[in-house]
Amino acid sequence: MSTSSQRDAPTRRIGITGHSDLTVSSLPHVSAALREWLTPRNGTWWVGVSCLARGADQLFAALVLELGGQLEVILPAHDYRSRKVEPDNAAQFDRLLAAAARVTVMDFEQSCRVAYMSASTALLAAVDTVIAVWDGQPARRHGSTGDVVIAARQLELPVTVLWPRCAARCAPATTGSAGADVPDGEDLPATKARLGY
C-alpha cells in the first residue's frame, strides 16, 4: 500500500481505464473530475497513456494534451480505427492519435476482447498509477474496465477511481450493431448467453 508521501509525490506516468459507453450528459462531469485530478501535475513532466477508446479514454487524452502532458497511445489491433471508431468520433480520434508522442499497436490484426485486454495489460506495464472512470460494477465483457481495475490491483498499482455523482452509462447493446463487442466467430445469441443477457 502506498504511503502518504508516495501518494503526494508527482506521478510521472499515468494510465487511464474507463467506460466507453458514458452517456452524453456524463461527459462534462467526467471531464471535470479528470481535470481536477490531473491539474496538479501541470508544470511538471508527465505522460498520460491511453488506449484511445471513446468515452473516458479520449476525455483523458484530450486533457493530457491540454494540460501540458505527453500523450502515448496503445491501440489494441491494426484494424481498430476502421472497425471500432464510429464516423461521428473519427475526427476526434484522429486528432488525438496525431498528437501522440508515441503510438504502439498490439500484434492483433482484428479487434476483439482479447486484443482489448492485451492493450490494457500493456498499458498497466507502462505506467506507475491508474485512473479508473468506473462505476464499480463487474465487467460486462472480458477486458472491460472492471477487469482492468482488478489486473491493476493485482499488480499493486495505485488505482484512483473517479465516478462523479451525475455519471451514468448507456444501456448494454442488445443487437449485433457496429458498436457491439461481439467476438470474432461468435454469433449474437452466443454472446448474449455468455454475458448473461
Low-confidence stretches: 1-9, 175-197
Order of adjacent strands in the largest pleated sheet = 4-3-2-1-5-6
CATH architecture label: 3-Layer(aba) Sandwich
Please estimate the helix content: 25-40%
CATH topology-level name: Rossmann fold
Structural class by SSE content: alpha/beta
| SSE series | HEHEHEHHEHEHEH
Give me the number of helical elements.
Answer: 8
- Radius of gyration (CA) equals 16 Å
Mean pLDDT: 84
Termini separation comes to: 37 Å
Strand content: 5-15%
Counted beta strands: 6
Characterize the overall form: globular
Largest sheet entry:
6 strands, parallel
Count of structural domains: 1
CATH hierarchy, class: Alpha Beta
Please provide a written account of the structure:
With 197 residues, the chain is α/β, with parallel strands linked by helices. It has one domain (10-171): 3-Layer(aba) Sandwich (Rossmann fold), CATH 3.40.50.450. Helices cover 38% and strands 15% of the residues. It has helices at 4-8, 27-38, 56-66, 80-84, 90-99, 113-125, 145-154, 188-195; strands at residues 13-18, 47-50, 70-75, 102-105, 129-133, 159-162. Strands 4-3-2-1-5-6 form a six-stranded parallel β-sheet, sandwiched between helices. The longest helix has 13 residues, at 113-125. The chain is globular. The termini are far apart.
Features:
197 residues, alpha/beta, six-stranded parallel sheet, 6 strands, globular, disordered N terminus, disordered C terminus
